[in-house]
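[recover] target loaded
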């Protein structure tokens, strides 16, 4: 049975993004393993961590626990990311997660042509978000993740699931979420 890595970047209690992502996970079936990013002890790459990581990579030694997330990410059959739309993109904990999984030798390498080559098992990812207003042309969170996952990690495609305008007066968030779940039924086979 396929293993899904659920990268949960939802911060609020009662998160609607998480609800929508859970609907996606149910629809996909299979086992999922959740990493709750906003509650994790992942650290941004500061000077000391960056230097340690460079040394480890040079020696090919990935035994430190700090590489657990990169290992988990590269071995998952499927990836589902849930991240609310914050400040035109996503919560900073997702960027910290990205810094922790972008590890040369674990999630990507460089070919002899100098181009990056992905080392991840999954070939598609699903990105789930909800927003207070309209995302429109500023889909900066998904666009960034898509560029990184296809360009560096070798994914073939990304699927974008959204529920917009949840915080607009006069709109019914429950109805909007229901409609997004109908989209999920159509998009995810
Ligand atoms: C820190 C923060 C930043 C936000 N930034 C935006 C934004 O730039 N554009 C927008 O349309 N909504 C924004 N919102 C509203 C959220 O996108 C919206 O409430 C979303 O549904 C929250 O997801 P959740 O229910 O999973 O927490 C922001 C909310 C918070 C708390």
């Amino acid at each position: 049975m396929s293993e899904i890595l659920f990268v949960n970047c939802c911060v609020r209690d009662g998160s609607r993004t998480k609800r929508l992502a859970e609907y996606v996970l149910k629809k996909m079936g299979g086992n999922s393993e959740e990493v709750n990013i906003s509650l994790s002890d992942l650290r941004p790459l500061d000077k000391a961590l960056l230097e340690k990581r460079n040394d480890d990579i040079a020696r090919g030694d990935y035994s430190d626990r700090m590489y657990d997330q990169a290992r988990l990410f590269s071995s998952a059959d499927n990836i589902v990311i849930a991240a609310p739309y914050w400040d035109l993109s996503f919560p900073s904990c997702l960027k910290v997660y990205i810094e922790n999984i972008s590890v040369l030798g674990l999630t990507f390498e460089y070919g002899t042509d100098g181009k990056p080559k992905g080392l991840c098992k999954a070939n598609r990812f699903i990105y789930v978000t909800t927003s207070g207003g309209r995302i429109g042309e500023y889909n900066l969170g998904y666009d960034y993740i898509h560029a990184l996952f296809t360009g560096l990690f070798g994914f073939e495609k990304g699927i974008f699931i959204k529920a917009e305008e949840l915080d607009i007066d006069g709109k019914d968030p429950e109805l909007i979420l229901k409609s997004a779940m109908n989209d999920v039924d159509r998009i995810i086979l």
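[recover] notes: The mean pLDDT is 97.
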